[in-house]
## 1
Amino acid sequence: MRYVPLFLAAAVGAAVCGCTPTIKTESEVTIKPVQIDLNVNLKVDKELTQALSPDSKPDLKADPNSSDVRERRRARRDQIKAFKSAQLLGENNKGLLEVRTENGKVTDQVRKVMEAENSDRRLVFEVVARKQNSTPEFVAQRWAARMAERAPSGVWIQTADGDWQVKP
């Protein structure tokens, strides 16, 4: 009879060990990528101001044949203002000047000033983009937004979606 208690003890032990409660958790952990948007607008705006603003160094002389972009732009500034006021030119959403007459025709003088200004702007957009590790297109869009914001009433402005409107 001594075997019965040992057998009983072994059976109870096996039952207890075999029937231990198991807690099963099914929690799924999903790691999603985090998108970080760095606002480089301020850096680009600062570079644009230094590179394109004709008033950033007021002591520069207005020389249309200078190697300095700011001097060349300063020499054209009054003409461009007059052409914009007369609604011959407008600021497009790519940071460039564009002809805004009904028939698309302007005098050679207007076209020459517009092309020279656009050429200088493109050059600066590329330089700023390289410095800021950006694209010339992004820099040009920032310039376009600034020009649209600062434009006086009565000037043609192209919106971001491509529509043209005269600034009220």
Note: Residues 56-60 have pLDDT under 50 and may be disordered.
## 2
Amino acid sequence: MKANGFVVLAAVLAWMGVAEAEPQPAQLVIWGGGKDTAEAEASLGRWQERVKNKVWDGTLKVAEGYPRIVKSDTVPGLKPGFMVVVLGACSPAEGPKVLETLKAFEPGAYARDVTWAQPLACPQLGPEWRVLQSKSWKKKDGTLTAVLLQGPESKDAYHPTLQALRVMLRAPDGELLGVDERSGDPRENDFARQPGFIPTLDGSGPTVTYLDIGAGCTAGPNVYETRVRYSTAGEALTPQTRTETLVDNTHNCDR
């Protein structure tokens, strides 16, 4: 007699030393995979590559024991015949928000409604950053993706609510070719009289303008503006930067 999916899954979990649970509805968050173990391991390697390059820092963290390669035949709700890289098993209410954050960085990620016979283990979001906006551009050298992030809300003038623009270049096969991040305070600067952080996700690629506060004198600090335009060249992410002085108080000192 042919074993059903629950029997096969229970046997696999017992071999792995994973605790069983009462089967329940869940949403599996899936990074990728393939038709065999080799393709799934290559997909898992791309996830680990991004972890090494801190792509997910402060935005998403998987539970202990994840990511995990799972044979799709063992999970009711998945299409048989594949090996998938699972980032976590969420409740149906939690899954969509996690997937929304994940897809901001990796549009190819997806989720499936399944019956899950293990304890739920949903990836955690934050706590340092949350996604405000994301956009991708197809380039000759790969895909350029920019994600606009915002930190925890703060009313403390000395610890303002920050924003960050995290930019990534991926090769057509998914390999990560480069990562760059710039952050700043989006409020209007008292000395320069303009916002301290201005990201742009329009046009042919992402750009960002941000202010740096340097040493000055009794009249106030120096303020510098940096403009960054992101492009690609020879499979490399190339931030093109230009910096100018907006406020120079070097000579405004009491004598």
Note: Residues 1-17 have pLDDT under 50 and may be disordered.
## 3
Amino acid sequence: MIEVLVSLVILAIGILGLASLQLYSMKNSQNAYWRSIASDLANDLADRIRTNRSPKQTTIEGGVMKDEKSAIIPFPPDYARIACTANSSGVFTCNWISGYTAPANTAGTNLAMSDLANWMQLAASSLPVGSTGGAIVCRDNDLSNEPASSGPSLDPAAADFSTKTGCLAPTAAKFAEAPYVIKIWWQEQEVNATSDGKSTAVLQYFATPI
């Protein structure tokens, strides 16, 4: 009888181990899935930004851009100077940051604002962003600058923009020369290591330069 009981205990421990391994595998698969969604979203916005600018070789002379034949071509819109907000229904609208006026020869500004609003809407509906996640395009020269866990700031002119996103503010010294960076962060549920077994939202981060 004792041998049977010992065998049952060993079998139960083995089954629990297999269940734990299965749970760990499912969690990693889910994490990989969310990361692939974030990568697809980043590629989508990168393509939109590249499309909304001239493919010609240009030089800047006297404050205007010129092609190889010295013909004036319009400036592309500066996506890093666009602020976005979401209403109570979660619908995004985007516009230039306060105090900024695009150069007179800038083209595609309405398309840029519409694209960015639609993209943020897509990110919010594709990932579990919750109250502290979000998606943004900004200027940054260090991809390790992760956003804060207190919630996103989608207005580059806000005082806490750099703190909450890890991006450069438009007033930063190296803002103009820094590359575009797409940052996406979302919440994933993980089980606590404590005995209560409750789950908590862990902020995950994905970033890529354009």
Note: The chain has a mean pLDDT of 81.
## 4
Amino acid sequence: MAVLASHTKTNDSLHGDELKILLIDDHQLFLDGLTAILYSVPGIQAIDSANDGKTALTMLQTGDYDVALIDLRLPLADGFSILQNMEQIGSLTPVIVVTASQDPQDIHRAKQYGAMGYMAKSASSGEILTAIHAVLAGELAFPDHTLSGVRRPHTSQPQQHWARQHNLTTRQVEVLRLVKQGLPNQEIAQQLFLSLATVKSHISTLFKVLDAKNRAEAIRKAQQFGLD
């Protein structure tokens, strides 16, 4: 029988909004410890948990989570099955894998299936919180050695300089490119494996940086800055 836990807390947020997090692991002691760590951080609205993959998929389908932390080794449906089925159930929740396995093949496979991050269960609370921050900002959070050979989108030096000047992340520049292509928020979210809320947050930031009131004005100003 699946064991579910739900706690609610209102506070200031990591990013200005209250966050809702889903934890998926079949070790209750680990869930309790991680829940306590996360609730020590301002801005957590709710933490839900599930002990098996089947229950997790149901919660991802019916809940609106900002981020999910999942183990790979789960009863009923493992972490890979969850990642594979998320598009089918219509969930755009960003996923960070938190597992005991450090097998490079598992890391590569998780990334291939759309995970935004990968952490060892032995990671410190600071490392886990850093990974959550990164993923909520639209960045990947994988062990450094797994990123070698990964093809990253090309960004010219002037564009990199402009992005750094305005504190824009690589992911936000990617969102801007897709906005310029005329893609709606939902499609941008699907292409970049982001939640719809994260895409909206990125676009809001871009509007402020570009001093634009709408998408058309943002596109025009991006072109003026020479962003491809």
Note: The two ends are 52 Å apart (CA to CA).
